[in-house]
Amino acid sequence: MKNKWTLWALAAVLAMGFAAAEKVHIMWSGAITGPTSDAGKYYAQGIEDYCSWANDTGYVAGVEFVCETRDDQYNNANTLRNFEEAVDRGDPVFLGYSTGGTLQLKPLVQEVGVPFIPASYHIGNIDPPDNDYIFLPIASYSEQVIAVLEYIAKVSPGAKVAMAIHPSPFGRAPVEDAKKAAQDLGIEIVEVQEMAKGLDYTATLKRFENKGVDYIVYQNVAGPVANMIKDAKRLGLKIKHAGAHYAGGPDLLRLAGDAAEGFLWVTAYYMPHEDNAAAKFVKELGAKYGRPADTIESVHYPSGMLAAGIAIEAIKEAKDAGKKISAQSVYQALLQMNWPNKLAVGPVTYSKDDHVGVDQLRVLEAKNGTFEPVTEPFSSALFRKVHYGK
Amino acid sequence: MRNPWTRTGNYKTSYAQDTTIFATYSEQASLVVFLIGMLVLPRFLSRGDMQILDLILIYALAVLGLNIITGYAGLINIGHAAFLGVGAYTAALVAPYLPFWLVLPVAGLVAAVAGAVVGIPALRIKHLYLAIATLAFQLIFEWAVGHSPALEQGGAMAMPRVVFLGYKVGFKNHHYFWYYVTFVVLVIMAFGFRNLLRTRFGRSLVAVRDNDRAADAMGMDPGRTKVFAFALGAFYAGVAGALYAYWSRAVVIEDYSLMISIKFLAMAIVGGLGTLVGSFFGPAFLELLDINMETFSYWIKEIYNPPGVDVGSAIRPLAFGLAIVLFLIFEPRGLANWWRLLRSYFRNWPFKY
């Protein structure tokens, strides 16, 4: 009799072994080296740590996540190779990175029907055609720029604004929408300047000054923005500076020092120095997985976490609904998602017609070496009107 | 007596014999075996492997073009990716209206016109100055695309899906289909490359490279020869660009940037400047090096990943740079020279003389 129970116990243990957690692969392809790797390396670490946290806490019962962060070196051919490998393996969702890589993959993403969550918040990623399977984690650059213009119009009615943009689709995307919004807001966009990879912006800034520019709005990455605002400080200009997600953040403070004081930055992410659940969560994870201070301080670390979080949440919802985890079930879960996440200022919500996760944004201002919120979370009033005519 | 199957000595008695493509029947036979091997190769490779192989073949075509400009004519070209881009954007514009087999030569011809225009400064300048002129073309190309609404300002221009003789190309067969297309194009254009030196234009290229004043004195026109080199090299790049556009399914400016131009130069140097086989070895070596280094870097990350220092990720760019430096120092004639030495060894083995 005793042997019988031993056999039953052994069979139960074996059965548990066979019913071990289902392994679900999630791949991220982005720049850990090469251009924009200053953001990519932290973004990758955010993904890795969120996955580890989901596994360690058993966040999705019966699922073990195998998250791979691939360094595509900002090379579209590498991104393509990584994406196709993920599709061949049957990954239910893919995490992307650059604007160019995402735009290039759009037709293929549409063809294979695998949900794709990029780190690029370029509106073209989710504009038609081939836009069914791409989901932005937070509001687009276009919406961010219009949100900051709305803030400028509120605090400085009739202000003259210059835009300093990255010479790429990433940089140019918000320009037309911003011009339309400026008309509605009663402010004037006097010039749009593409920023070369120069180290001295004296001529540009003096021209802005001569045109009576009150604000420069940046759609760029932190490096060139830091150079320009340092030059503006050196020249003693009174022009104020503002920028979209990748233009600002702790990276800008590190690069520009006290020249960043007063910089207005629009993003959907909470800051690690804030006293809230998001900051606590980010710090805890950073400490748990041995990340250095610069990782924990970077806004790209929680950005990576949110991207991984959206993917994992969609998998959880598909699993909870009793569906087999696949690209289609995760896609359906994403379309119905309403996730009150900890990392950003609003819930991640999607629908068939809305592929923007967090619709809310905040304007933060650089004060004494940190970014402090100067607005409550809000949604841009004009973006949908100027971009979609709604 | 000359053995038609093996080359046991130099028995050539005429200029025509000296310029034959194949010295022996065994060389012809080995080429036929190689071509058959390449045709059946996809049966043994996965879709992922095919993707890499396709990329190597497309890059090989581009490097053939660079070898005409830089290898044969000795004109440093830092804007080769822009020629590729001209071909790719041409393909994106005409592909909705033309079958792909017509898109490829059209893209090549448009790139050739661009090449001839870029080559015009070569009538008056050379060396470093010409290199800067090609760099200028690269930058002008990127700027022009970036400011052209018709070209999506450098954003993606999707390529149409191809149907060929009722065969619809989709996700599963994409890389297999483009492998065969690229392979056929490459074989044709590689024969063109090989035959180039047998023509008076080809010999002019080399003569101008070696000493343009002497070439001028011998009745050649160095300026026209250089423009011709740019046009022909750009034609190869344009065709490669169109193939790349189809292969990657969309045209995006980042694929034709200065970094890619530098990568092509690295491929030409590592393969062996001015050599046919080097144009294959260079892209294959650097692409496979990168992929293997990627795998190696993940392995390194598994066993040694100190916080804050991404040792694994640093290995890939390090390996790329190191490979180029080591080749420049220890084997400036590239992998083609190793291939030559290997062939020489087997030609004399076992003791033909």
From TrEMBL, chain A:
Leucine-binding protein domain sequence ranges: 25-369
Which residues does UniProt assign to the signal peptide? 1-21
The cross-references to Pfam families, in alphabetical order and at most eight, read:
Peripla_BP_6
What's the domain of life for this entry?
A: Bacteria
Organism per entry: Oceanithermus desulfurans
The alphabetized UniProt keywords are: Signal
**Protein family membership:** Belongs to the leucine-binding protein family.
The molecule here is called Branched-chain amino acid transport system substrate-binding protein
Q: Which SUPFAM superfamilies match?
A: Periplasmic binding protein-like I
TrEMBL record, chain B:
Species of origin:
Oceanithermus desulfurans NBRC 100063
Any GO CC annotation of this UniProt entry: plasma membrane
What's in the keyword line of the UniProt record?
Answer: Cell membrane, Membrane, Transmembrane, Transmembrane helix
**Coiled-coil residue windows:** none
Q: Give the bilayer topology.
A: Multi-pass membrane protein
The record's listing under InterPro entries reads: ABC_transp_permease (IPR001851), LivM-like (IPR043428)
Q: Where in the cell is it found?
A: Cell membrane
Q: What is this protein called?
A: Branched-chain amino acid ABC transporter permease
What Pfam families does its record include? BPD_transp_2
CDD domains, sorted: TM_PBP1_LivM_like
What GO molecular function annotations does the UniProt record carry, in alphabetical order? branched-chain amino acid transmembrane transporter activity
Top-level taxon of the source organism: Bacteria
So where does this one cross the membrane? 20-41, 53-78, 98-120, 127-145, 177-197, 227-247, 259-286, 307-330
Q: What main location does UniProt list?
A: membrane
